[in-house]
């Protein structure tokens, strides 16, 4: 798991929703911005993989943007936004294992054919005969 938190920039805004005394005064919501194109922590291949996997979350300027406003303090929201962005990017870098094609065993094939034959006989017995 690569840590590129030193490349992340932060922007604060006022949190939405019910608030109390601090609702119109304190900027506790944090937006973490990371420039995918200008990173120095990843190779070109890894950057391309991130671009493909997170294309819906990356803006036209190449910024990956994650917001956090769950907590009442800016510091906790900043920590949460950082964790979210690190998890997103590190999950995008995971290469899934290739699926190996397997054939059904002879006993499975025989079992399936026997079940079909049994069902066919059951339906054949339901037919009305003159």
TrEMBL record:
GO MF term list: peptidyl-tRNA hydrolase activity; ribosome binding; translation release factor activity
Extent of Basic residues compositional bias: 114-130
InterPro entries reported for this sequence: Pep_chain_release_fac_I, Pep_chain_release_fac_I_sf
Residues annotated as domain Prokaryotic-type class I peptide chain release factors: 14-30
Record key words, sorted: Hydrolase
GO biological process: rescue of stalled ribosome
Region (Disordered): 101-130
Pfam families: RF-1
NCBIfam families reported in the protein's UniProt record: PRK09256.1
Family: Belongs to the prokaryotic/mitochondrial release factor family.
Protein name, as recorded: Aminoacyl-tRNA hydrolase
């Amino acid at each position: 798991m690569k840590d590129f938190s030193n490349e992340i920039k932060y922007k604060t805004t006022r949190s939405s929703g019910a608030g109390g005394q601090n609702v119109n005064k304190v900027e506790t919501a944090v937006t973490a911005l990371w420039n995918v194109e200008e990173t120095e922590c990843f190779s070109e291949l890894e950057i391309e993989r991130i671009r493909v996997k997170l294309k819906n979350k990356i803006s036209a300027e190449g910024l990956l943007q994650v917001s956090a406003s769950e907590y009442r303090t800016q510091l906790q929201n900043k920590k949460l936004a950082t964790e979210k962005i690190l998890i997103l990017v590190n999950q995008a870098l995971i290469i899934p294992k290739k699926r190996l094609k397997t054939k059904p065993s002879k006993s499975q094939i025989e079992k399936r054919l026997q079940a079909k034959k049994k069902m066919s006989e059951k339906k054949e017995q339901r037919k009305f005969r003159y």
